Amino acid sequence: METIKVRADALLPTRGDLRNPDCPSREALDRIGSKWSILIVLTLARGTHRFSELRSEIAGISPKVLTANLRSLEHDGLVARAVYAEVPPRTEYTLTPLGATLIEPFTAVKEWAETHIAEIHHNRTTHRT
Question: How wide is the angle at C-alpha 29 spanned by C-alphas 120 and 92, nearest 5°?
Answer without folding.
Answer: 100
